[in-house]
Amino acid sequence: DAEITQSPRHKITETGRQVTLACHQTWNHNNMFWYRQDLGHGLRLIHYSYGVQDTNKGEVSDGYSVSRSNTEDLPLTLESAASSQTSVYFCASSETRGGWETQYFGPGTRLLVL
Amino acid sequence: DQQVKQNSPSLSVQEGRISILNCDYTNSMFDYFLWYKKYPAEGPTFLISISSIKDKNEDGRFTVFLNKSAKHLSLHIVPSQPGDSAVYFCAASYSGAGGTSYGKLTFGQGTILTVHP
């Protein structure tokens, strides 16, 4: 069955370290998204990609970067981790349907920055 | 500026009764709306959606109503079951000119639904 996976599921790191969160989907979807979930904010969009070599900034992109070298993967990098980036991170993907796409989410990565 | 709002942080209902979750939005460009359900330690799961050309969409026990003039949507769950206890997020997207927005979602804060046996 097609699916979307994230790794690691839990991560503890220190302030200033570079961290990369992996996202892999086997749906063959063109569109991929990264969100963070914080209490009181719902899910907020960090970065997104509409295809290979395409990346775009979302609502809360400062301190994060992504790259898209193939259809299946969109890794999220925290360049220099900060305590404010402690959160739960979700990756999602969708196929292109003229704007009315449904996104399907991975299980999430819980990140703690000490 | 919170473009999608769920003003009730929590809702408690009895098993078998109706659950009504509400969502308001401010951006009149939104034309596709979705509800997601989320259990602890899992990712959000798609539940039901509605496009702006409709005012109602039904799928089993779940019905979503859209009132465009009021910029309001609601999710009705009938009858409610204990397994429905979860966090419910509403989300909205804008298709863009010629469908070029590819469904970027703006989420509400979520409502915790508890269904008591």
Itemize the secondary structure elements and their pairings.
The complex is a heterodimer of chains A (114) and B (117).
Chain A: E1 4-7, E2 10-13, E3 19-25, E4 31-38, E5 42-51, E6 54-57, E7 64-66, E8 76-78, E9 87-94, E10 104-105, E11 109-113
Parallel strand pairs in A: 2-11
Antiparallel strand pairs in A: 1-3, 3-8, 4-5, 4-9, 5-6, 7-8, 9-10, 9-11
Chain B: E1 4-5, E2 10-14, E3 19-25, E4 32-38, E5 45-51, E6 56-59, E7 62-67, E8 72-77, E9 86-93, E10 106-107, E11 111-116
Parallel strand pairs in B: 2-11
Antiparallel strand pairs in B: 1-3, 3-8, 4-5, 4-9, 6-7, 7-8, 9-10, 9-11
Summarize the structure.
The complex is a heterodimer of chains A (114) and B (117). By secondary structure, chain A is mainly β.
Offer a few descriptive terms:
A: mainly beta, seven-stranded mixed β-sheet, 11 strands, B: 117 residues, mainly beta, globular
Could you please describe the fold and organization of this structure?
- The complex is a heterodimer of chains A (114) and B (117).
- By secondary structure, chain A is mostly beta strands.
- Chain A is 0% helix and 51% strand.
- Chain A has strands at residues 4-7, 10-13, 19-25, 31-38, 42-51, 54-57, 64-66, 76-78, 87-94, 104-105, 109-113.
- In chain A, strands 2, 4, 5, 6, 9, 10 and 11 form a 7-stranded mixed β-sheet that branches.
- Chain A is globular, with a radius of gyration of 13 Å.
- In chain B, the strands form 2 sheets. In chain B, strands 2, 4, 5, 9, 10 and 11 form a 6-stranded mixed β-sheet that branches.
- With 117 residues, chain B is an all-beta fold.
- In chain B, 37% of the residues are buried.
- The model of chain B has no long low-confidence stretch (mean pLDDT 93).
- Chain B starts with a strand and ends with a strand.
- Chain B has strands spanning 4-5, 10-14, 19-25, 32-38, 45-51, 56-59, 62-67, 72-77, 86-93, 106-107, 111-116.
- Chain B is globular.
- The interface between A and B is medium-sized, with 29 and 33 residues.
